[in-house]
Amino acid sequence: MGIIQEFREFLEEYKVVGLAVAFIMGATVTTLVQSLVNDIIMPCINPLLASTGSDWKNATAVIGPVALKYGSFTSNLINFMIIAFVVFLIAKVVLKETKVTKK
């Protein structure tokens, strides 16, 4: 058995091409979600976060000597929630699971 044949079997057995496609799609979805949150959702939430009239990215709460940058955190939290929901939908729909359970 030649090295080329072994490599082909490796690619087929571990479904490397499918994994590579999934990785690329995941990176693309992450970029898309970040744009959705930063360009569409957060400007709508900006009046609630930045009461001083500044940009939502700079929304900060000062508690004594500590400055909490909650605007950026809120954006990242929304990013996470959307991506987690997309992963859940993939597990539910694409894998045709009737119920996602713990193992």
Automatic annotation (TrEMBL):
It comes from the Archaea. It is found in: Membrane. The keyword Ion transport applies. SUPFAM superfamilies: Gated mechanosensitive channel (SSF81330). It is a multi-pass membrane protein. Keywords: Cell membrane, Ion channel, Ion transport, Membrane, Transmembrane, Transmembrane helix, Transport. InterPro entries: MS_channel, MSC/AndL, MscL_channel. One of its GO terms (molecular function) is mechanosensitive monoatomic ion channel activity. It holds the Pfam family MscL. GO terms for cellular component: membrane. The chain crosses the membrane at residues 16-37, 77-95. Its main location: membrane. The keyword Cell membrane applies. This is Large-conductance mechanosensitive ion channel. It comes from Methanocella arvoryzae (strain DSM 22066 / NBRC 105507 / MRE50). The lineage of its organism: Archaea, Methanobacteriati, Methanobacteriota, Stenosarchaea group, Methanomicrobia. The gene is mscL.
